Model the fold of this input.
Amino acid sequence: MRSRSTAPPSAPPRPRILRRVLATAAAAAGVAALLTGPSPSAPAPLRPAAAASGTTTVFYYTKTKNWPSAYLHYAPDGGSWTTAPGTRMESACTDWVKKTVDLGAATGLRAAFTNGSGIWDNNGGGDYALGTGTVTVKDGVVAHSDPCADTGSGSGSGNEATVYYATATTGWTTANIHYAPAGGSWTTAPGAGMEPACAGWWKKTLGIGTATSLRAAFNNGNGVWDNNNGTDYTLATGTSTVKDRKVTTGAQNPCAAAEPDTRAPTAPAKVTATATHTSVVVGWDAATDDTGVVKYQVTRTGGTKGTTVTDVTSTVLTDTGLEARTTYTYTVKAADAAGNTSSASAPATVTTGERAPEPAGGTPLGTDPRKDPIYFVLTARFYDGDSSNNRGGSQHVKSGNAAGDDPMFRGDFKGLVEKLDYIKALGFSAVWITPVVLNRSDYDYHGYHGYDFYKVDPRLESAGASYQDLINAAHAKGMKIYQDVVYNHSSRWGAKGLFTPTVYGVRDSQWSWYYDERDDGFAYDGLTVEPKSGKSYYNGDLWSTAEPTGNTCVNWGKPTGGRSAEGYTVYNCQWPSPTSGMFPKQYYHQCWIGNWEGEDSRSCWLHEDLADFDTESTAVQNYLVGAYDKYIDMGVDGFRLDTAVHIPRVTWNRRFLPAIQERVTQRFGAGKAANFFVFAEVGAFVNDKWNRGSVNHSAQFYTWKERKEYSADDTRAALEQYDYEEQLGTGNQPVSANAFLNGNTYHAPDHSQASGMNIIDMRMHMNFGDAQNAYSNGKDSDDSVNDATYNVVYVDSHDYGPNKSSTRYSGGTDAWAENMSLMWTFRGIPTLYYGSETEFQKGKQIDCGPTCPLASTGRAYYGDHLAGTVTAADFGRTGSATGAVADTLAQPLVKHLQRLNRIRRAVPALQMGQYSTDGISGGMAFKRRYTDGGTDSFALVTVTGGATYTGIPNGTYTDAVTGDVRTVTNGTLSVAAPGKGNLRVYVLDGPGRIGGDGPYLK
Done:
């Protein structure tokens, strides 16, 4: 569910944390790690402090544009724009021009650049937002250093060190060296600007006087650092190279062998532009170059917004948000690493259409959820349909994802829509997706760190592939969408619209690398790059050096007396904490969990990344109910409830569950509401029936209504309910026969005491290291669940494998086949975690936070296995497939899964039937029946081993696997052992053999 976190230097001591709380990694945790903070020896601000007069010196890079002159057109924040084209910029140094602007009392400016002849660079129509001090704008990237500074340059006297730094891995567009000669002082951060030497290399020659070595760190000018995992680099005189944290002393010039590149790429050919509503897709053939094309510049003219130039690295650009019924012209240039630019392509002209209407709201399919096997995906790791919304976040480099070009936010709704047919071809008719709300944390791709619960995270959406589009596309294929939802906690930065904390970020220069410069005109959405910081993970709105109005945090902004590992001063209220008053008690709980089987587990924080809502607060309840009403209205088919055990059952039963039912009924009617599927993660990671003897912490407990009245006050009622049920104990809990046959007879289930919450079968999950063990444990718990036929059953997930394993299931293909055969025929709803159909990442650690790349974990990107085309002929049947996805669909477990889904779909008893083992011998053998109106489905099942059934109805039974027909006249039927992973399903008056022989079902 989470990503493991390491706390930052300022974090408070933590209580014991369960392994299942795999919480997000804090950026501050990496102060001493690669690319996360300035040198510990040199705690200095990210950029120089603004001059007292309020000036900004703007440097603009001209080589790529090749303009003969450049003008700065600007407006101080709150002031008026200059008269176009603005003020002419003066030459600064090779390829750079500059202009110093007096801002008066303003703290920044908005700007655009032009050649004075009608060609503009206005940041794609959004202008540039620039702060004070020294600012560089290079190819659309805003940074903060003087590219022409001669700080430390070799002067011919004293010792010199020439340093080459490689940026091929980091992808930085500029580099600075922050250094101190041995025995000397550090430069002022961010240090001296390095010059481009050749493709992927930056260079600086430093005069270090009598010193024979220096300590150094590198940064991109926007707060991203490489300080050699907190130890800095030690460099000698002479020539040194630093590449991927390796220092080579006395190195050869890495650019010496490369002759100056003066040849421009060829002009891109076959430029096309096609419009859909007010979006245009521009495509072209790749240009050629002797050293390689590194980017393309797409120039758009037309409309009222003027000329724009957009840089892309692919051969396609999606241009959105254009004006309706407007003609636009596009030309494309190619550029190489040396800055050589081709001539412009031939133009492509296109006229936009009408503005696209919002997609119509969906309607839940409303069928019995037990009919629908579930495929569970981490949306951001499944399939990448739109690379433009990919984001790596603050931990992109530290995690190792950058080295593999594998941003944490990679998959998206567009990719999921494109591969719905793959999921349907497997045979699944429901897709459980991870939370969709806007997240905010440093490693939040999984979705469990909600920040704006009313907004869909734009890192998941694309033009024509919104969340609504996904819901509608799934419904059009007869497939349901189950949305993962979180009621228990928000992100570490609170919940937008309810409460977000203001932390003490920058009292002195030490923390400016972490807290970004405030931009009051910018709203965080996880996707958009904030222009002053150059980050999509900007956090300048979260901190203040002045105590905020209404602050409740004790000793806000005062030193704690402690220091971080780097020697930084640690301040109160600098990091989320439940015990400091930072989070007001009317919205958030005020304690750490001390006992995971105690009452405090329902009313205290799991982790500093997971700010624990006071779910008994009316304001919190209204916020959450209102948020999730939005997604109900969109037509989702159900909710998976995250961390449900950490909210009192009485709060679920009083507030949240009735609110769900009321909204679905209001919008879609009682019939749809009855089948709106709510299933919960009640984390009981033990093998016993009752979680260490605590009924309040056991999964089945949550399937029941309350048995008595409690106080009208929700906080008091939660305590009363906890004490009452604990005192009654496990022996006095309600029991149910809803999952069991009465002999051979199906009976109408009694749901009068059902809470409306169903559960993930944690006990079977914990025991799925062996199918027989899972089966035996599941049966043992079923009488304490209101209706176990609604249990969601899986082997492993994004949290754990069986027996609380931290790795993806690796029991082998035969064992997987056996597990699947049991899940698809026993009571409950079979569920598969993405990729398990190919044993994807088997044995790999499920999650390690940012301490290793996602590609090495159980949450790796699956899209490489899905490349190509696929269409589904029906559920469990492939129509056509090409490329890698065709190979995936040919895997043995996939074939096994497809046939299991077809058999289950054809036999209602396997979907909704009650079961019994009375009169049956055999290891995993049972009978199931479902009766409703004209439907009467009766099946005899045995998995792997042989079985004998006695006392069964006489009649003709046909095996759905082999087609074998048996006529029973004496109430007895015997079945030989089918073999590991195989099964027999003898159906009374059944449909006959379903599908053909496969690797296991035969």
User: Anything to note?
Assistant: The CA atoms of residues 335 and 769 lie 55 Å apart. The longest helix spans residues 649-668.
